[in-house]
Amino acid sequence: MGPVAELLGTIINSYKEFKDVGEKRDLLAQRITDLTGDICATVLRMQETNYSDQIGRLLPDLEKYAQLITRASRFIKEYDDQGPITHFAGRNQMQDEMDKLQQDLDLFIVRFGNNRLVDLCINQSMGAKTLQEVHDMAVAEKLAKWLKSPPEMTEKQHNTEQSRSQGTGQWFLEDKQFIEWEDNPGVLWIEGPSGAGKSVLSSTVIDNLFKQRAQTTPRSLGVAFFYFDFRTKETQSPEIALRRLILQLSAEAPHPHKTLDEHYNLSDGQKLPNYQDLVSLLLRLLKQLKRTYIVLDALDECDSTNFQQLVGLVAKLRAWAETPLHLFITSQTRPIFTENFEDINHIELHSEIMDQDINIFVTKELQTKDDLIVWQANADMVIEKNHSKKQWNVSLSCMSSYRTILLLMGRG
């Protein structure tokens, strides 16, 4: 490894010098950039796939490339040191040298590409990756089954997203309190009456977080969520919520499923983790992630006999300070939440806040559905049609029809 490391250092240093030259050599520079990256990646793959002891067999190829890149670097320096007149007088010779460098690079690429050791390493690396993916899937399925297959949240998230009209909820993502929560660890509580659109806002937040995660370094940001739902008994327990959160974060940890699988192996899957075990597992996973976002929607739809346990879970997560944790919760007003969440940052939803979303929804419905019947007898809504622009303008003169609108929007 010593000679190879030294050669790689020479190659990288020469490459850095070459990279600093001007635009005249861009094409050649780009080619050397790509090839240098391929060489370094190949050596790394050989290390990762237990071929380190055979890296020395690449020495002849690496020595050849080191000579090539040094030659190219010297040529560029000489070219840059010459003035425009010298460039013009010696243009044929310079072009010949440039062509010769390109030809030698072509020969090297063919030789390096035909190296059976390189080919074996790349194929082995791809095979190892595929095997790891299959292994991860099998472990994930085993753990989900072990935890009694807690309700899958992706379908609930999808259905809630589908009920949201395009453009609604944007005001919330631009709200100052939400932006502060997004940037700084802590808890944000959304409180509002039934049908105020809390679950739709949760789905908007979750969708936004996943888009952000896609733009970050892999496995540096975790996102987990749970929808409590009074219509489904399996989604009314804090313990079930914990199982779901753990399964989600376990898949996103730097070593997927390792922590949870270790707990599984303690009893060979014969014993389910109790509530305190689940809390400990969740905290262990939080330690492994650089930043975590957790969304718990509709706390009030949890079984009321479990409210105290749920409040305790929120308190436990709220106190977490070892790694950045952002907790987003929604609920209707309940005395137990009011008492325990009184000093938590929170946004209270009311009709005026939702006016913009209602306006967007109704306008869209009227523009796209010619057969929509609008009742105006109670004068709750004032709807005007601009025939020249073929648009509807919607305003709400009072909110007695608020509940009806929300039902139309799928938010009831």
Automatic annotation (TrEMBL):
Membrane spanning stretches:
none
Q: Pfam families under this entry?
A: NPHP3_N
Signal peptide range:
none
Looking at the record, the residues that make up the NACHT domain are 186-301
Q: PROSITE patterns this protein is in?
A: NACHT
Keywords linked to the UniProt accession: Repeat
Question: Which protein are we looking at?
Answer: HET-domain-containing protein
